[in-house]
Design goal:
The chain has helices at about 10-15, 20-25, 65-75, 95-100, 140-150, 160, 195-215, 215-225; strands at about 1-5, 30-35, 50, 60, 80-90, 105-110, 125-130, 180, 185. By secondary structure, it is α/β, with parallel strands linked by helices. It is built from eight helices and nine strands. It folds into two domains: about 1-150, 3-Layer(aba) Sandwich (Alpha/beta knot); about 165-225, Orthogonal Bundle (Trp Operon Repressor, Chain A), CATH 1.10.1270. Helix 7 (about 195-215) packs across helix 8 (about 215-225). The two termini are about 35 Å apart.
């Protein structure tokens, strides 16, 4: 899998993505990252990529041309171009799985007041992390890339992924490690029993209870799928 990121701040994104799990995947050759700055395609000596919006309004708007040229340089037959945008569909684990199967992903990071609307003809999909505003698309791109990369085959052991939150539509059950007693708080006895069938049953029950308490919306979706 290859992920190219179109960003005004390539060094900042690179520093985060080439670390931890994503960094190890890169070193193993399972994933390749690329970074392209739209300023490289600016026409003037000052490398200008923004201007005032037509019709007035506060803030600056990114020009379509530098981003169009960056996308054009990167795009291949099997590429998918995603713009990180607050008006996009909200990102989730199912979308992460879908993206992890792609051969080539191009993530476009907006900034300031966004990008000239005319760039939309060269974007395949817009994705948002949620109903809040970031100062730029870079943090969202890092989150999206990291979530997708860890699902690429051989990046993480399959057994480690199996019981994670959202994998079956529910939140993960509570987890504990040594010591068995910490600050007078004990690990649930069932987890020390060695009875794997009962442990699995306990984890499923706790997963359902935790989801009902913290994310009832997920529980409703889970129930509908089971019908």
């Amino acid at each position: 899998m290859r992920i190219d990121i179109v960003t005004l701040f390539p060094e900042a994104v690179k520093a985060l993505l080439e670390y931890s799990v994503a960094g190890r995947a890169c070193k193993k050759g399972l994933v390749k990252f690329g970074y392209l700055n739209p300023r490289d395609f600016a026409r003037d000596k000052h490398k200008t990529v923004d201007d005032r919006p037509y019709g007035g309004g506060k803030g600056m708007l990114l020009m379509a041309e530098p981003f169009y040229k960056a996308i054009k340089k990167l795009k291949r037959k099997n590429s998918k171009v995603i713009l990180l945008s607050p008006r996009g569909k909200v990102f989730n684990q199912e979308k992460a799985k879908e993206l992890s199967l792609l051969k080539h992903l191009i993530l476009v990071c907006a900034h300031y007041e966004g990008i000239d609307e005319r760039i939309s003809g060269y974007i395949d999909e817009e994705i948002s992390l949620g109903d809040f505003i970031l100062t730029g698309g870079e943090p969202a791109a890092v989150c999206l890339a990291d979530a997708a990369v860890r699902l690429v085959p051989e990046v993480i052991n399959k057994d480690s992924l199996k019981n994670e939150s959202f994998n079956d539509g529910l939140l993960e059950a509570p987890q504990y490690t040594r010591p068995a007693v910490w600050k007078r708080k004990k690990v649930p006895q069932i987890l020390l029993s060695g009875n794997h069938a009962e442990i699995e049953k306990w984890r499923k029950e706790k997963s359902l209870l935790l989801t009902a308490e913290r994310r009832p919306d997920l529980l409703e979706k889970f129930k509908r799928r089971k019908l």
